[in-house]
User: What shape does this take?
Amino acid sequence: MAATILIIDDENHLRGLLARILQLEGYTVLEAPDGHTGLNLLEREDVHLVICDVKLPDANGLNLSVRIKEGHPDTEIILLTAYGTIQDGVKAIKNGAFDYIVKGDDNEKIIPLVSRAIEKATLQFRIRRLEAQMNKRYGFDQILGQSRLIQQAVHLAQRVAVTDTTVLLMGETGTGKEVFAQAIHQASARRSGSFVAINCGALSREILESELFGHRAGAFTGANRDQKGLFAEANGGTLFLDEIGEMPLDLQAKLLRVLETHEFLRVGDTKPTRTDVRVLAATNRSLQQEAEKGLFRLDLYYRLSVFTIALPALRERPDDIAAIAEAFAQQGALKVGKRDVRLSPEFVKQLRNQYWKGNIRELKNVIERALILADGPELLPEHLPFSGEPSARPDDEPTFDLATLERRQIRRALEHTSGNKAEAARLLGIGVTSLYRKLAEMDNQPSE
Assistant: This one.
């Protein structure tokens, strides 16, 4: 697609001649006899370059260039004048113009100048489009729901995103903690840097240490070459530590040192490496209770919880379920080759009746399953993996104690998998080692 150039000049003959020359070069050219008309055209068209006379009937081109840059920062400007002065040229550049030339200069000089300005503007337009796509895919717009609880969480995340503060995201499994972390990164000044995520409960202690901090060749058996860790990979960007409560205590000490000094030691190294990383962490456990039990460092908890955001469970915002399900249905329809998918009222009613232990992640899986089972475009109750009866709370007596809820979730997972601990750990979103540790703790606690 040809780049678009707007010529603003009250001299009809000169404007028409320049327009013809640029059209022969393959550009799309718009014309305006004054500043007012030019500004109106800029509001309606995507203009890469403005070629503007300094002296206009209704404006001064030097001042007009400031207004153009304020409203259209990616558009480049070349100013034309009949009588050029060094002072005006300097002012033009300060006001954001790409260049400043005298009318009557050889057209062979103008064409290369226009080409360079268009090249710069095209790159700026492309960057802006990519940023818009990234914001749509990873920004706050992807967080669905209008309920007070989710909007409150989004508001807090937006406020803290523009800072460099460490953030602790708290919520049950499947509530969208990584989605929030990505949105915070995308809204921050670090958006051009890397967003690197790791699940601290999915790896053994040795592998986790190597992944986070890297290692030198020969540091341990099998370390045949130097390896960069995630703190080095995320330098200038964001490191997201999911399930931070699963991190072993000795590694917690190393993490605390990085947060306080911005330095870390690779495994097998003696010289510290500096890093500029923003840390976002997430957990589905009460780190304060874990710290009181001696399972999590209290000093690290205080360092991580400078700014805490609690993400609501799906059952706490039932009015959002229909909109989230509709979005998942439209996304999933593309995967299974369906069009015009719709959710029947009874289908939505049964979704609202569910307890949703797995929260948004579970809802997404249910919608994908329904899309596969549905023969037509409408999703019906028979396409759901559960009955139409409202699912009751798991417990007769309401409880808000995270430790109690955790024990109950573990028991249900083991019942569901007939005692298969590896599968239960997968369903719970934790490592097998972590599950065995939790089971040992449960054996030492009085039964509910």
